[in-house]
């Protein structure tokens, strides 16, 4: 099915199931520990061998010698896989460095060996017996030092254009009545999901099956085949339950490749989980940025010039963090420029983490907007509203499909009690705490990807949905079931959803907040086909047939749905594809984030007191799972603002705090009270469900809202994330 | 983790004797620190002596009005003991500021005192570290040092002792009671229990090889206000950037000990005589001679401001 014009009324609009705050259908499996994650497939392989990954201990250079003999002789050891004995391995398209390194080393903790043994403990002990000598070479590990050498990267689908110019930015900025020119920095961040990357691999002849934890089944199936040099049809990848990904599991990673190689070498199934201390340096991370924002405005608050430049680093051949993307679309302004520059760094490879681009980009832009509002003497909410745009400011012929941005801000201000904010910072106290309110805009584009599904009706009236879509803890199972239930007119209990298997129709997968809207649209398309099949089978005119309460009704005739499958299951498969609708119109999601913080006047510790997000993301398919997504993302945004940072050792070239003691993410005590409001909205230009993504919107802007609240509390502006106490301590007011 | 042998001891003397028997043997109590270190092969004991069955899990009153805390009393039980809560609030508060509920259920008094540093380079066995591997160098110096020590450091090591409980015990003038392999017992004042790194950062305490901690003794209660302020980047479940434990008397005198600044809980009795003159005066003396790095110099200001705030709270 092709979607290329506005959605009209369809069975989804009945909202009997869609739009209801239903519990997640996989919830009981998760809470009882019965959902089998990749490392726990005892049901499939009772007695696998275990792999332990060895990471390189230099950042750049070569392996000069490797002595495996002691490890190979150790108790229980079945095989030691290295680049020397693994056969020819190619590199996939989505990873920058090789997933099994050697003799060249491209980054710290790049995998260089897998020790396979009968037990986990044996594999781990033997791994310590492998002796590797390296010759280290000097590398570039410091973004600030490398900034001058940064160049314009090659544009790609992921980056969009590298530089944009509209009007005459330099002149308009120079002539603006009020100007702001500030530089902001965001650090490298780790996804820090609970479940490590994990895979169980099993060969049957030359066919490989991997049970893994991966967000993008089709991508990674292809990448695994490419890497191993085997035909894609020989690879089956199964990823039904994922303990968090946040972008870290979008791609094929070392666990999958090494499990496959280990299983081949050992001649039996092997499972591998990346050890936690390896994850920060072995896998991808969100790259650090240096961002310069320039704003010029008239005294009445009209922006006349808006410029945003971003510098980030990556391994040779990698890509930039697209931190300027939102600045092209969020605010009006006749004269504009954006640009991205990329420096070569020999740190581990950067890649997508929840809302790549917008998350760090808004952390900079939305502090700048707060600073500019203060310079202008205008309320920050009003300043943003004054510069709203209903069209793409770089391409005014492209309207937004829907843009209730102003409503988000106004409703948020009202619900939060924004009028109680004192515009003069550092004024409000509660005992020893300095209190501040801050806000920021949230913005994330709505990305759509073609997505397929297969639906089956059996003679009990059960509808089964099969798609390679994944559920990374987001609620995909549930919203897909809701879509099928609504379309086929059956209760939720009559729907079965099976996900994450590469033998199923290819879906959009989970990433870029495209999963919910895209995958449900694919299920919609398949259900439309199944409805036609049912009608044909029952000799009804499908255009008139109403599917409701387990029945198919035309006029005053009604037939049980399962009657259509009396002679055998009815199966329909289709996918949703998109015309140029997204080119003609800009589809985005919007939020207003509001935060209250308390800063300890003595120690400078910042603690959040309450948070509110008002979100507009089209139709909300399930308010409960959508809310969970948003509060989780707000929590991650709070972490970005207050504590998350991979500490770079710029001499040795690695992220030092590579475990969950060193890399702090928020705990419950950091997140006392969160409220989420969704605007009652539909976007008919998005999909037939009129829904958009919401899983990343929740993080976008939060960091800046926290930063602005801290400034409002203290009067000290910190432009270098995370805002830890050491960055404002010596500028805080004296302890009374 | 290296393969190891394991035994359960039944008396303190037997445990100490057993430890002297096998070179590199370790006692295991809650295991919350030791097992993590063994999994990463930062520690590789060939033999473990389980001390959980020694009957050292009671808290008793001493003759001179103090408390004797068994080495195996869990952090949870110690923090919840009514006598501790009433008379040694500093200790209860420091304990509850540490780790998480689950960990405190397992963690023991002796194990907590002997927990090892959280220097991130100590945890990465690919990096040189004089504490982990004597003579290999110190990767932290010149590297990422934000969490590390500012005073009493050496050119060999700038790590800190991460315990909250130990800060309180130091301020309260506790003593550590032990038994050695030959059955001899002794008492070690907290002031002498932990060592500065010097040239031998791997030697962290005054304990001899195989010496078993049997109890920790608190002298009779001090009265006063007991305040423990742990400063950290997140609100819970994080090691201190700095912590300040203070016992303050109505007449303006008091005691103060610091965590997160040195290789041991940091206290200076002389500096305490400055207490009536305020935090600035106290910290000026207490941290005189500090050698912070560029990344952790903020700890000096932080200690001073935190103590100042505590003094305000104590008056209120
Ligand atoms: C995630 C995490 C967070 C933490 N956060 C904090 C925190 O915020 N603040 C804090 O203070 N601590 C914190 N801790 C550390 C925790 O307090 C210690 O792990 C715990 O106190 C150790 O006690 P244990 O009984 O488990 O010791 P074990 O791990 O059993 O032993 C530790 C050491 O003590 C030795 N030992 C044990 N008993 C004796 C004895 N009777 N005589 C002689 N030697 C003995 C062992 O041989 C070993 O060397 C944290 C730990 C973790 C894992
Ligand atoms: S500071 Fe001490 S613990 Fe840390 S690396 Fe140096 S020697 Fe090792």
Description of the structure:
- Chain B: Its EC number is 1.17.1.4.
- Chain B: Keywords: FAD, Flavoprotein, Oxidoreductase.
- Chain B: InterPro entries: CO_DH_flav_C, CO_DH_flav_C_dom_sf, Diverse_Substr_Oxidored, FAD-bd_PCMH, FAD-bd_PCMH-like_sf, FAD-bd_PCMH_sub1, FAD-bd_PCMH_sub2, Mopterin_DH_FAD-bd.
- Chain B: One of its GO terms (molecular function) is xanthine dehydrogenase activity.
- The complex is a heterodimer of chains A (736) and B (316).
- Chain A has 736 residues and is of the alpha+beta class.
- Among the domains of chain A are: 170 residues, Aldehyde oxidase/xanthine dehydrogenase, molybdopterin binding domain (Aldehyde Oxidoreductase, domain 4), CATH 3.30.365; 214 residues, Aldehyde oxidase/xanthine dehydrogenase, molybdopterin binding domain (Aldehyde Oxidoreductase, domain 4), CATH 3.30.365.
- Helix content of chain A is 23%, strand content 26%.
- Chain A is built from 16 helices and 32 strands.
- A seven-stranded mixed β-sheet of chain A has the order 4-6-2-13-10-11-12. A five-stranded mixed β-sheet of chain A has the order 1-27-21-22-23, covered by helices on one side.
- In chain A, a hairpin with a 2-residue loop joins strand 24 and strand 25.
- In chain A, helix 9 runs parallel beside helix 16 and helix 12 runs parallel beside helix 13.
- The mean pLDDT of chain A is 97.
- By secondary structure, chain B is an alpha+beta fold.
- In chain B, strand 6 and strand 7 form a beta hairpin.
- In chain B, helix 5 packs antiparallel against helix 8 and helix 11 crosses helix 12.
- At the A-B interface, helix 3 and strand 30 of A face helix 12 of B.
- The structure holds flavin-adenine dinucleotide (FAD) and iron/sulfur cluster.
- Flavin-adenine dinucleotide (FAD) binds next to strand 2, helix 6, helix 7 and strand 8 of chain B.
